[in-house]
Design goal:
By secondary structure, the protein is of the alpha+beta class. Helix content is about 50%, strand content about 20%. It has helices spanning about 10-55, 155-200, 220-270, 275-305, 320-335, 355-370, 420-425, 430-440; strands at about 60, 65-70, 80-85, 95, 120-125, 130-140, 145-150, 315, 340-345, 350-355, 375-385, 390-395, 445-450, 455-460. Strands 4-3-7-6-5 form a 5-stranded antiparallel beta sheet. The protein has a 5-stranded mixed beta sheet with strand order 9-11-12-14-13, with helices on one face. A two-stranded antiparallel sheet has the order 1-2. A hairpin with a 5-residue loop joins strand 5 (about 120-125) and strand 6 (about 130-140). It binds adenosine-5'-diphosphate (ADP). Adenosine-5'-diphosphate binds next to helix 6 and helix 8.
């Protein structure tokens, strides 16, 4: 099973310790190596100097042997742990330090021994002592001898061992202290996350207005907090919109339901003639109609919000689409003796979902009919807007929309004059559905209006690929 601490603090500390311990171990290794090499260099230099000193002290004995002779009484054996052997090239031992006793610095010399630079080498005496040995060839009077001088390396290894012990002893202490320090640092650095988590836990749907407190918005945690707060802001706006939508929708549903109920109750109070009952049923059906339209609009909007609408795009002439929309609202216009004209280029194509965009245009025409006085003229005009865009304008001669209300006309359930527009059946959803339908096709919708001078709603849509704009051919229905 893999060991994996649960919190980031411990994981950070562990990683920190691992890296620190590896670095310390590497440092200790390199430092020991350097210490060893420099100690041994001193050691070798002393050894080579002593080889020369010992050479000067060699004296030939009358019996053919060799002895050490010095003017200084202490210099007979220059150092403790200093071993000397003198051999004849033929392999007979001429001198051996007393301290060596029966230990040997190797056997009889080979033919090349001591001929080259006397670079020291390491060897072990039969009793296990590690020594550093240098050989050189020398002439004592007329006799050629091989001189071997060696030092015990035990002191050097002892020093190195002591150094290693100090390091080993210090290592766990250093790692332990660093561990505590690292943990405390990680704790301090991550403390804002803990406090953010505690604050975030307290934020619920009812407290979406709360925000995380941010100490420093410039650092990484501050940025995270800011992003989180921004997200809360968006969530809050969406929640508020949803709440408003639900409240408005219930209100809109309640009004026709209350109307149906009161009409029914009044009708039941007295005996009435069949004609009166027909009237009652007629007005009830009107309200049911309103309810049905409202339910359809709500359904369309909730589908749009959920993103469940799949566009069935086809290349279609915008003017043709305007004509189809007009034919759907013609009866309403005729009732008010209004005329709907269509103008513009019939060849310019847009790639849209026929039913969805047609409904958008129907909503605009329906409004134009509803809010314009009887006998007015309504114009649906297709206009080219460069190589990539095409406009459809729905222009009426109605009362216009006051400028203070214009920014809100596309909002859900917005009506300029709530009491009057309800009479005409509007719930304030038509324009928001139109805006969604246009935007889902990559276009946009704008309004130009002046109180008392009519309104112009302008839909702008991208041209279908391959469709080009040509000079407009005018025409009216
Ligand atoms: P409704 O279903 O009430 O017509 P809309 O979303 O279609 O809802 O329109 C919102 C409001 O904008 C309407 O209630 C009306 O007050 C105003 N409005 C829309 N179109 C026009 C227009 N052509 N002329 C005047 N007022 C309009």
């Amino acid at each position: 099973m893999r060991f994996r601490p649960r919190n980031v603090r411990s994981r950070l500390t562990l990683w920190y310790l691992l890296v620190l311990a590896s670095l310390l171990a590497l440092y200790a290794g390199v430092a020991s190596l350097f210490l060893f090499l420099s100690l041994r260099e001193d050691f070798d230099q002393n050894l080579l100097q002593d080889v020369e000193t010992v050479q000067g002290m060699l004296t030939k004995e009358p019996n053919g042997g060799v002895s050490l002779h010095s003017s200084h009484p202490d210099a007979a054996e220059p150092r403790i742990g200093h071993f000397i052997e003198v051999w004849s090239p033929q392999g007979s031992l001429l001198y051996r330090s007393a301290v060596l006793q029966d230990q040997k610095l190797g056997g009889p010399p080979g033919p090349d021994e001591g001929l080259h630079d006397p670079s020291p080498s390491t060897m072990r005496l039969p009793n296990g002592t590690r020594v550093r040995l240098a050989s050189s060839v020398y002439h004592v009077e007329d006799q050629r001898v091989v001189l071997r001088v060696a030092y015990s390396e035990e002191g050097l290894w002892r020093e190195l061992g002591e150094f290693g012990e100090v390091l080993l002893l210090g290592f766990p202490i250093a790692v332990l202290l660093a561990g505590f320090g690292g943990y405390a640092l990680a704790r301090k650095a991550l403390a804002p996350i803990d406090s953010m988590a505690t604050q975030a836990k307290r934020i619920s749907a009812e407290r979406l207005g709360d925000r995380l407190s941010i100490e420093n918005p410039e650092d990484e945690l501050g940025k995270l907090g800011t992003v989180f707060n921004d997200m809360l802001g968006r969530l809050q706006a969406a929640f508020d919109q949803l709440r408003r939508f639900t409240a408005d929708a219930s209100h809109e549903l309640r009004t026709p339901l209350t109307a149906i109920r009161s009409v029914g109750e009044v009708a039941l109070q007295d005996q009435r003639s069949p004609a009166e009952y027909r009237d009652v049923i007629g007005s009830m059906l009107e309200e049911v109609d309103r309810l049905t339209r409202l339910a359809e609009s709500l359904l369309a909007l909730s589908r749009a919000d959920a993103g469940h609408v799949q566009l069935q795009r086809e290349d279609i002439s915008l003017r043709q689409l305007a004509r189809e929309a007009t034919s759907l609202v013609e009866v309403l216009a005729e009732e008010k003796r209004q005329r709907i004209d269509i103008e513009g280029d019939a060849d310019v194509l847009v790639s849209v979902d026929r039913l969805i965009l047609r409904q958008a245009i129907v909503n605009l025409l329906d409004n134009a009919i509803k809010y314009s006085p009887p006998g007015g003229r309504i114009l649906a005009r297709v206009k080219c807007g460069g190589d990539k865009q095409i406009f459809l304008e729905v222009i009426d001669q109605g009362p216009g929309i006051p400028s203070e209300h214009q920014p809100y006309v596309f909002d859900r359930f917005f009506r300029v004059d709530k009491a009057r527009t309800r009479e005409w059946g509007g719930a304030g959803l038509g324009l928001s559905i139109t805006r969604w339908a246009v935007e889902v096709h990559g276009g946009d919708i704008t309004l130009e209006s002046e109180e008392g001078h009519g309104s112009t709603f302008r839909i702008s849509l991208p041209l279908a690929k391959g469709s080009s704009t040509s000079p407009s051919k005018g025409g009216s229905q």
